[in-house]
């Protein structure tokens, strides 16, 4: 009894393995509580590997190949269009407006906390 993947050439099997891994990563990565640059880059890499892997896997079926290429082009078009120029005055105004919401919040600076732990009343020490 042989499985369908045993009849595939090693390169094709590796592509299939990477594609399945990328699809699993696309499902699992959004549940990761850590959202840093590396996680976002990994998600973007998983999207690319899954897309290219599916394109290679379905390459022999012309209708799916053309659909995959057309879908990739259609999705990438909005990212290639020029954007509107940034209004720096409005951006500055909105930034300052959002900062006003932080007025009165305690700010703990690590160096200041260390200085206070050495000399609790730093104003008394000259």
Describe this structure in words.
This protein has 126 residues and is mainly alpha-helical. The chain folds into two domains: 4-80, no CATH class; 88-118, no CATH class. Helix content is 63%, strand content 0%. The protein has helices at 10-28, 37-57, 62-80, 88-99, 110-118. Helix 1 crosses helix 2. It is elongated and about 70 Å long. It starts with 9 loop residues before the first helix and ends in an 8-residue tail after the last helix. The mean pLDDT is 84.
Write the layout of secondary structure elements.
Elements: H1 10-28, H2 37-57, H3 62-80, H4 88-99, H5 110-118
Helix pairs in contact: 1-2, 2-3
Largest sheet features: none
N→C terminal distance: 87 Å
Mean pLDDT: 84
Helix proportion range: 55-70%
Tell me the strand percentage band: under 5%
Low-confidence stretches: none
Give me the number of helical elements: 5
Question: Which structural category do the helix and sheet elements fall into?
Answer: mainly alpha
Short description:
With 126 residues, the chain is mainly alpha-helical. Helices cover 63% and strands 0% of the residues.
Question: Can you give keywords for this protein?
Answer:
126 residues; mainly alpha; 63% helix; elongated
